[in-house]
Every structure is written in C-alpha cells, then in structure tokens.
Amino acid sequence: MAIRDVVGADGTSIVYRVTGPADGKPLMLLHGWAGNLRCWGTAAGLLAERFRVIAVDLRGHGYSEAPETGYDDPKIWAADIAAVLAAERIETGAVLLGWSYGGIVLSDYLTAYGTGAVAGIVYCGSQAGIGRGVPGAEPGPAMRQAIPDVFEESPGRAMRGFAAFGNANTGSRRDRGEDAQRLFGGSLSTPPRVRKALFYRTVDNTETLRTLDVPVLILHGTADPVVPVDNGRYIAETVPDARTSYWDDAQHGLFVEDPARFAAEITAFVTGLD
Prior knowledge:
By secondary structure, the protein is of the alpha/beta class. The protein is built from eleven helices and eight strands.
C-alpha cells in the first residue's frame, strides 16, 4: 500500500492511496460527499486482490487540502482527477468508479478530458449532474431532511443532520456498526464550509453521457434514500452502452451493505472490458 499526493490545477494537494498489484488494471475510486478514501472498507481490499486500486481523497476531504474556493468549478474537479492519472502514468485503460457525489466529479472529468484514458465507467448510487432543475439530479428524502443541519458548524446540529441518513450508507440487514461509525466520523471531519460548498453549484453533464464511447455500469439500490434510483436509471437511459444492476431493497452504500457482491460485480465488469 502506498499513500501519495499530487498537486491539482490550482495548487491544491490531492492525496490518494494505491493498493493491489502494480501491473493490475487501474481502478480509481471516487468517494461521495463528506467521505474519504477510507470509506470503501472491505470492498477496496477485495478489489485490490486483482486490480490496482487508486482511492482518492477529493479536494476538501480526508487528507487532501481544503482550499477556500474552487468547489463550484467543474474544470477544477476534472483537473484533480487528471492530475492523479498523470501522476500514476495512466494514459489508457483506467476504470473510473464514482459513488454518490463521486459520480458528479467523474462526469466533470469526462466532460473536460473525454475517454482517452478510460476503458470503462461505474456509477454507484450516483448521478452525473447537480443543481435544481438538472435532469437525473433529484435529491432523496434523507438528503433533503439532512439539509441545512449538515452544513452547520455547531456539532450538535451537524450530528442531528447526519443522523437523518440513518442506515442509508450501511444498510439494515446486518450489523455494520464499525463501518457506519467510520463513515459518520469521516463526514464530521469534513469542514462544514466544504460540505456546504459542494451543493452550491449547478452542472448538467447530460450531453457528455450521450456521447460516451466506453461501457458504463450502473449500480443502484432501489431503496436509496440519498440518491434516488431514478437518478441511476437516468444515466442508464442516456448513455449508449449501459449495463445495470439494481439491488432490490438496498440503500446507498452498496459496497458496505454487501462488499462481496459489490466486488464481484465490479470484477466481472472490469474483466469483461479486456
């Protein structure tokens, strides 16, 4: 395992972790809003048995720097991803996986840089755009209930806001207490101003979806209360080459809810690209 960092377009330090075989197919993991590179837990380890897994701390999250501005600029988000790919000398064949907000960042990258370095794309509990009136970007009831408390600097109000997610990130079928607390702690450690800034932008990446020339896998829980499954269906209906896996009654954090299934479906998709 190696922890590395690279300088983004505006001088922001972006930290990422690389695990798995050096000659494995590169698989980049982009976490969601108020997450970090550790959120993938067991699933990342399973994927690293076969792939070169690159888990990124998005700007403002985890160990990456948190600048005061830039969160509303899709070109900056895109440049961060491009910088990591360049640092890892990946010019072709990468698979990009975006969970939740990570799917928006992934789409920002594709809009700015295209698919030259990309062999496949995975949207997990995700959407491609953000903003009021943007198609395929409707927030779920848990997200609406959490706002605006999750933006607050007051610890009490912030914790109350995050409590609105309930078991959404971990599922209720099994005891995932440790994983749940790690996700909760990572969310609270994200600066409140960053949590807020990520929602104060509007971007519609629909045209990018329509012109994608690589396979796309959509994983989504049918009971996702954070990013509704209709957002995933919108991606599936828009991209030319979509493969879908809708998990009955599953919620938002599929990689926590069933790590083995998550890793198996990702593995089947990635190996099928060869």
